[in-house]
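Repro:
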Amino acid sequence: MKILNAIRRSIRRLHAKGRTDGEIAAAIGGDRRRVCQFRLRMGLLCVGGRMYGRRELKIMRLNYGTIPAYAIAAQIGRPVDSVYRAARRLGLARCIPRLEDRPGLIDRLRARHAEGWSDAEIGRELGVDRHHLRALRKRLGLLPNTWSQHLRDRARRKTAEQLRRAGLPNLGHLRVAAFKKYARDRGWPEDLKKRQVQILELLWQRGPVTREEIGAALGLRKIARRIGNGRISYWYPMHCNTPGHGADNSYTADLLRRGLIISLGRIVRNKPPGARTGQGRNTVLYSLPLNIERKPHAKEGR
């Protein structure tokens, strides 16, 4: 009995230090399976290979169910999944009743599903989480109402209400109003395109940049073109083929014409990757003019 008590004390002491079953077995000179059996009989928890110490178990018992699981995981330095598994083993997790056992729920689910309601709408009406309701719907063999007539009518009503509040006739004007606000909030003219405002913001923050640097900073897609002798060059398209702008004009050309940016000339040497000596070319450097004025940031509601 004294030997067993000494083994238990050793296991409890090493477990409190966060040792695994294998490390405890190596320290006391025993078998890992026997250590695991002793640990389970003493009520010591082991999750994910690293045992829960007394401090961690105390935090779990005090806080689980009162604060989010991710907050508990941050306190004890463990993954959120590990916290959930530990809570189930400690008996802290609440048992969720089966949805099938609720009287009348399946009939109401079938009726609303036949009307074209989504899982979220049915869940709000029945007071059930939409993820649990989706699992039940799948077990019943019901297909999701991705874009039913009911959902289209709801989207139509919400869109009309949004346009009514904004005082706009259609969604096209809503998009234009959003772009105008995007430019106005940053202190640039409202009639600029969104990409033009981004170019001005880039020049304001970084200073003079080339066309290649503008394209890379804005995340534009490169287009390959053949430049002779089997060589290929890559360039960033910046054409604004929209009404009010010619098909041959670009964002930078329009900004140059309006005097919002200036060209410093082809003064930057650009050598494409893999090019030999003498195959490089000069690129144009764009900059903001010295006399440009930027309006203060317009606050919401003004």
